[in-house]
Specification:
Mean pLDDT: 86
Strand order of the largest sheet: 1-6-5-9-8-7-11
Strand content: 25-35%
Structural class: mainly beta
């Protein structure tokens, strides 16, 4: 990646869970699985976060790590008239403050923390599942569309840690837009 724009962000949470909590199970409710809000995580190029449910899974290689702007969750709670939501409930791996993520779709970028840096390729929106209506609040599934995070492929191996960080982007970002929904629009080309 060529040098780009640098943005001060904060890594608030690093979620690692070896199993799915919201996969299927509609009648039984969410699974009771061990989920860790780690101080630091080890990221492996092309595979994801060591110990996470998506690590090394062929179906998730291009979307093994999910970044999420906490401002989105705060805006959703406000819109729904709910108390602040636990930022771990949506089960996104890297919860950031101060990061506009949608412009990073299709881009290579770097997240630098005090313990190292990791390059990522921004893959696609992280679409929310219907479980959000049950674990957050009624209407959360719809409100989270377009701001459920960014699914990424790690390009480098390294360690990320909670705390102050820098997001290095090849394109300009507007951190003030972190809470706003982004919807990919169909092309107008014939």
């Amino acid at each position: 990646m060529t040098p780009g724009f640098r943005y001060d962000v904060e890594i608030l949470h690093l979620l690692v869970s070896g199993a799915h909590a919201y996969f299927g199970r509609a009648r039984d409710g969410a699974a009771d699985v061990v989920t860790t809000d780690a101080e630091r995580v080890e990221v492996v190029a092309g595979k994801g976060i060591v110990g996470d449910r998506f690590f090394g899974k062929a179906a998730h290689m291009d979307a093994a790590v999910t970044l999420f702007a906490v401002e989105s969750l705060e805006a959703i709670a406000t819109e729904l008239g709910a108390h602040p939501f636990d930022p771990l409930l949506p089960r996104r791996n890297v919860v950031l403050r101060g990061a506009e993520l949608p412009p990073l779709i299709g881009q290579d970028f770097v997240l630098e923390s005090r313990t190292g840096s990791v390059g990522f390729h921004g893959g696609r929106h992280a679409h929310p599942c219907a479980w959000m209506d049950r674990v957050l609040a009624p209407g959360a599934h719809k409100a989270m569309r377009g701001r459920g995070g960014l699914r990424c492929r790690p390009l480098d191996s390294g360690t990320l840690s909670r705390g102050p960080a820098v997001l290095v982007s090849p394109v300009p970002l507007d951190p003030a837009q972190a809470a706003h929904a982004s919807v990919l629009r169909p092309s107008r080309l014939p």
